[in-house]
Write a structure and sequence with these properties.
Blueprint lengths: L13 E4 L2 H10 L10 H6 L11 H6 L7 H5 L7 E10 L8 E13 L5 E11 L5 E12 L1
Length: 146
């Protein structure tokens, strides 16, 4: 059983620079065909100052964390019992090539189902750019099989 006193626990923030090649590869990987995400001229024609990030790109930024398993290790979770349950995105402002996004992670909930065979951890990640503008929120719900 995961200790509920971990609700509210924050982890050290980390910054990731958004790179042109990174956005293009992500767009290709998700099958994005809108040129606004891969062509600077198309992006400029739509009023963007640089290539914008496709939807859900913030999650790939979270994979740049020095230790992607930090939260799970801190909670003593056996990774062989960990499942990704749900991911939610709230878009507040565009992310562009050249931005430096700082990610702030916090455990916002830990709960279990009545049968106590599954536990859930909710981690909220705030994304803030180099201008200290809040550009997005991600909510990741993890499932631990007991």
């Amino acid at each position: 059983m995961i200790d509920r006193s971990n609700i509210g626990k924050s982890f050290p923030p980390y910054a990731v620079e958004v790179e042109n090649h990174q956005l293009r590869l992500f767009a290709k990987a998700i099958g994005e065909t809108n040129e606004v995400y891969t062509d600077e001229k198309a992006a400029a024609a739509q009023g963007y100052s640089a290539l914008p990030a496709p939807p859900t790109f913030g999650f790939s930024l979270s994979l740049s964390k020095p230790n992607v398993f930090e939260a799970y290790e801190a909670l003593g979770i056996d990774l062989s019992r960990l499942l990704h349950g749900e991911q939610k995105f709230d878009y507040i402002a565009p992310i562009h090539v050249g931005d430096v996004i700082t990610l702030h992670e916090k455990i916002t909930d830990i709960f279990e189902k009545p049968e106590k065979r599954l536990e859930f951890i909710v981690i909220q990640t705030s994304l803030v750019n180099q201008h200290n503008e809040h550009v997005g929120e991600m909510t990741n719900t993890l499932v631990i099989k007991n």
